[in-house]
Amino acid sequence: MTDLPFLHDVVVVFAGSLLVVLLFHRLRLPSLPGFIVAGIVLGPNGLGLVADVHRAEAFTEVGIVLLLFTIGIEFSLSRLREHARQVVGIGALQIGLTAALAAGAARALGTTWPLAIFLGLLLAQSSTALVLKVLTDRGEIDTPVGRLATGILIFQDLAIVPIMVILPFLAGTAEGGPAALLAAVGKAALVVVGVVVGARTVVPRIISEILKTRSRELFLIAILVLGAVTALATAAAGASLALGAFLAGLVISESDYAHQAMAELLPLRDVLISLFFVSVGMLVQLDFVLARPLLFVAAVAAIIVTKTLTGAAGPALAGYSPRVSLLTGVTVSQVGEFALVLATAGRTLGLMSDSWFQSFLTVAVLTILVTPFLLLAAPGALDRLARYLPGARAAPAAPATDLVAAEPISNHVIVVGYGLNGRNLATALRAAGVAHLIADLNVQTVRAARAGGEPAFYGDATREEILRHLGAERARMLVVAISDAAATRRVVRVGRYINPTLYIVARTRYVTEIPELTRLGANVVIPEEFETSVEIFNRVLAHYGVPRSEIETLTDQIRASQYRALRPGALPRLSIATALQGVPRMSVERVRIDPASPAAGASLADTQLRTRTGALVLAVHRAGQDIATPDPRFRLQPGDVVTIVGQPQQVRNAVGALTDAKPAPEEQPGSPPR
Asked: Which domains does the chain have, with CATH numbers?
């Protein structure tokens, strides 16, 4: 039998990864660091179950190409436009500060300037895959921290393109000096432009022809072939294969079929990401780490602290609170997978020695491993340190006297968060003449709200001083309309502490937050995921004729039980069947009276419609007016539109009675169009 060592390694990798990641899941830890640990354990420097280093490196190369291809599909130019401000401003500042500080430190350690610059650019990268997965799993992708971190990550992804272009020049393998560098940048720009043009012109036509076959297999093969051809063509133009893979994914992302392509590749994507991180773990040399553990611990701590501060600089300058700024910095404080891609390319070009590569790889892996723990502990740690943070006790951006009367406002509503829910609530309060104040952490949002006449303030409502400034001790109601679950809990707790009689309404994304928010003092907790369900079944039951009182009773039962009745396997079961018993299916129809209709000129009593069919006349539309529940003596005229209601068969019989034309001699009755 033919020996297949590669297949053996694949089986070992995925079987071992399965066990390790299962253990991480039991410990409630993210899976991505688990794949790195699996690689360390299974690789040539661990148990040696995959003993060949070159095969491990082959895993890495394949993983890099396929990882960048799938990330490119998820990336899009529209996403870039959506986060333009964070991408251009905050992202550029983060990379610039981190690269400058890291390069200066590397140069101080005696490295050459090319290597120092390269190390600075490497350390400036963060883990897009890890951060976005953690934020998504925790429901924090739409929070201020989530949006800021996403902007920084997008800019880092974009920065990969010029870094890959200048990499041969840093390594000294390119010829021609500055002129050649400019030519390479120009060539890369042309390649990107060509990719964008192809994405909008050629690709849709090709995919459209493939889709006409209605074959999922052919569609998937076409996507993979299209990606491979684009990647190889890009590499042939002088760029790297990894960059070509990313641009190939970008080609597909800009087509109308990107969502379907991603749906087909989604299972494969997760496998490829896991393969990449396992292969990275295989390259870590444990003996190299154990020989100088304190040095690596110090290096990891220095990198995390530095990247936290540089990541926080942009949001702080943009006007965000110290807490949001620092949490953003912590979120992007690790070294990411793109840095590992660049490091591998740098070693191949001879820019990094094996010793430097191993040191960087070890530090990067350690930062990724500690990131989930940092993100879990950071909010609580910042709360304890908040009193020492500069500006933590700062008042809102404008004094209250600018927007409120000289007398302290009271019996008002405090709205925390001016997103979609906050804006809608403020609009309703304003229309009803209810006094209210708004707090938000986005400076631009506050300015726009104040320009529209809203009493909006910049301030972190998790701080007691801010809520007191907004008059929480005199307020009637506090509405927390933000998407940050941790911040929501803090606002509720502080609001209840300030005013024990305050009526607190909190919005949350998940029903699992209800018990904790209720314990902290919220009077009403509105979970988005189940309120949508409540609205849907309200409309469905109303359409089936269930009395409004029954629907309201059912809704009250669900909310009073904190939505337990809607959870899978929950008890007690709702008595919805009793509400539907005996309720017939009703139908409504509108009928126009033609001159030939037997009802034309007759009164409703003469038609005997109710007696003959059981249907009821609700209204008659005549000359632009609606006549509700007309009298039995009401006479129908040609052109009238009659609204009738009843069970489906009753309505059909009534329509026939109203529309059947008077039969002509020697002819059967006909039914002219209504």
From this structure: 54-385 (1.20.1530.20), 402-522 (3.40.50.720), 530-580 (no CATH), 587-659 (3.30.70.1450)
